[in-house]
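testing teh design pipeline on a random one, pls ignore if ur not involved
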């Protein structure tokens, strides 16, 4: 019989509980905090000093050319700004998919990089390389030391390996339903004898919906969004 202890599949539940840059945090259906309800977060940074990431499935009704009119070339693009999280809404981050490491960027996983460089953004706007993709996010999600581990352990977040296709190619409205279904399917297929309370989705009833949002002070490019007069 297959049990949690014997589950050795690299894509299985146990391995996907590991927190690291390049993981998706998929909000539990029970997580009702409006900042994170039905969100998927790409984890960018994780360590003893805390963690940070970007919500990838919340596009705003704001075109990039409206947010940053001073950048020539954006008026020819139809991309929207994304809400990256509740922290530092007046700052932006640039998520890039590129075969080569962009200038002033940090690797997240595979060919995905994070940057706050206006110079890098200008180059991407002018680039004719169709394999290069980018998205811009206002704000980000942040956790104090040990906070994310606590939220994961009580079931607020499910951890899955991230992939570029989900970030850049899938419709935002389809991302959370698809990933929560993928996670749920793994649990439904577990067969643990003599413990009927573990089967299916019974464990969801024990998940707490409470999530905190520490104030982080990372400095990124300024957009002017969310600034107080």
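output:
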């Amino acid at each position: 019989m297959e049990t949690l202890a014997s589950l050795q599949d690299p894509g299985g539940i146990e391995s996907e509980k590991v927190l690291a840059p390049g993981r998706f945090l998929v909000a539990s259906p029970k997580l009702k905090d409006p900042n994170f309800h039905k969100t998927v977060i790409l984890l960018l940074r994780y360590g003893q000093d805390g963690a940070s990431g970007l919500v990838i499935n919340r596009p705003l009704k704001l075109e990039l050319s409206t947010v940053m009119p001073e950048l020539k070339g954006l008026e020819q693009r139809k991309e929207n700004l994304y809400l990256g999280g509740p922290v530092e809404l007046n700052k932006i981050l640039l998520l890039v998919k590129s075969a080569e490491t962009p200038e002033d960027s940090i690797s997240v996983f595979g060919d995905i990089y994070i940057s706050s460089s206006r110079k890098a953004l200008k180059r991407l706007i002018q680039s004719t390389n169709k394999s290069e993709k980018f998205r811009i996010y206002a704000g980000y999600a942040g956790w104090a030391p040990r906070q994310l581990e606590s939220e994961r352990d009580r079931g607020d977040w499910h951890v899955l390996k991230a992939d570029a296709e989900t970030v850049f190619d899938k419709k935002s409205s389809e991302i959370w339903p698809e990933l929560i279904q993928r996670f749920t399917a793994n649990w439904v297929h577990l067969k643990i004898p003599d413990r009927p309370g573990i089967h299916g989705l019974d464990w969801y009833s024990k998940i707490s919906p409470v999530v905190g949002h520490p104030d982080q002070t990372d400095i990124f490019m300024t957009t002017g969004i969310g600034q107080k007069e």
